[in-house]
Every structure is written in C-alpha cells, then in structure tokens.
Fold this sequence. Notes:
This protein is mostly beta strands. The protein has strands at residues 6-10, 16-21, 28-30, 34-35, 40-41, 46-47, 52-53, 58-59, 64-65, 70-71, 76-77, 82-83, 88-89, 94-95, 100-101, 106-107, 112-113, 118-119, 124-125.
Amino acid sequence: MPRKKYVEIEADDGTLHTYAYHPNGDGLVERGATVDASSRIAPGAYVDRGARVARSVRIGEGAWIDEDAVIGDGAVIGSAAHIGRGAVVGTRAVIGPRVKVGAGAKVVAGSTIESDAFVPAGRVAREGQLTRPKAA
C-alpha cells in the first residue's frame, strides 16, 4: 500500500495541521513552511508553518522547528532539538542533540551549541554563553 502524501495531526486545541513528507529525508513539513529542496529533514522531524529553512540545512531525527523560526544556510540541527517559535539559527550554526532554543532567541552564525543546552527565550547565544539544564 503506498504511503499517503500528507499527514494530519490534531493539536491540543482541536485544530488540524497538515504536513507533507519532505523529499530529502522524509521529515514532515507543515503547509505554510518553506524548506529548500537541498536541505535534509530526517524522519520524525517536524517543520511548522511559517518556518523558513534555507539551503543545505540538516535537521536530525525527532527535531522540531517551531512556527516562524528561521534556519540559516548550512546550519545543523541535532536530533530531538527544539527551535522555538520565531527563533533564528544563523548560517552554519550547529545545534547539538536535545538542545532547546527558546522563542525569539537567536543563535549567532557559526556558533556551536553543545548537547542538552538551553538558550532562554529572547536571548542571543554564542559559543560558551549557554545555560545547561539542572541535573535531576
């Protein structure tokens, strides 16, 4: 049986969001998002409406690019990372696995944000200026 072209996901408020499989990597891209054909969206990754993903970006498995986020050319987003609503990841920045970038935050071009780090909402993040989650 052939796979469907679209997947509908119901949000907590009952609204339906329609995603298409990206041809390069099989990740899911919501209607209204823009993803360059040269970018790879891994299986299980989501790009929400209004988000823009530039050229040659790699988004890992289970990552989530929230509404209106912008990912610059050549950036790498690690597996299970979350880029918050309206956040900006600069050109060639590297976001490690399980990193959380808050809403409206900006990761400076060329920066590397290590695994499990947290960039608070509205902050500008550069290498070495990060908050790590507290141990449980």
